[in-house]
Amino acid sequence: MAIERTLAIIKPNGVEKNVVGEIISRIESKGLRIVGARFVQLSREKAEGFYIEHKDKTFFQGLVHFMTGYPIFLLCLEGENAVFLWREIMGPTDPSKAAPGTIRKDFGDNIEANAVHGSDSLKSAEREVAYFFDKSQLYNRF
Ligand code: CMP
User: Fold this and answer.
1) Which burial class, exposed, middle or buried, applies to 41 when counting CB atoms under 10 A from its CB (0-12, 13-18, 19+)?
2) Could you tell me if the CB of 113 is within 6 A of ligand 1?
């Protein structure tokens, strides 16, 4: 299987709950490797640009407000099938529909404050990783 990279975000409510280490531990225990990481507090412009595909949705402004209200923790993850694997570890978007043991079930509060973000495809992952990380900020193992 191909080695992929994907973007993970620990959202404001995950950072506020002090579960950054717990989430990283789950990521590493599933065999994914962290090749980039940093805290950032997003500007409105940066958050809007990130979620641009949702700009016409009713929840867009609320989501941007939530994502800019507190620091987030950005991660670039690498491993075999990383995009799918990280989505499996997170669970579905809505925590109320997520299985026990998934991050969103365990740490999400609602569909907006769902603790973590993950890229939804390899194409999105490429855009999202590049949106937050310069090449020089990523650990190149290969
Ligand atoms: P995320 O993985 O960050 O990608 C887009 C985000 O939009 C999603 O997680 C949710 O936090 C948010 N979102 C999706 N649907 C809704 C909704 N119906 N109401 C509020 N927020 C939503």
Assistant:
1) middle
2) no
Which atom of ligand 1 is nearest to 118's Cα? Answer: 2
* Exposure letters 113-136 (e unless 16+ CB within 10 A, then b): bbbbbbbeeeebbeebbeebbeee
DSSP H or E run through 35: strand 33-40
Q: Point out the catalytic residue in the list 5, 11, 26, 117.
A: 117
Helices 122-132 & 82-90, crossing angle to 10 degrees? 80
- Render pLDDT for 61-71 as a digit per residue (tens, 0 to 9): 999 999 999 99
87 Cβ below 6 A of ligand 1: no
Q: What is the pLDDT of residues 72-108, one digit of tens each?
A: 999 999 999 999 999 999 999 999 999 999 999 999 9
| CA 131 – CA 108 distance, rounded (Å) | 24
pTM of the model: 0.98
Q: Is residue 93 in contact with ligand 1, taking CB distance under 6 Å? A: yes
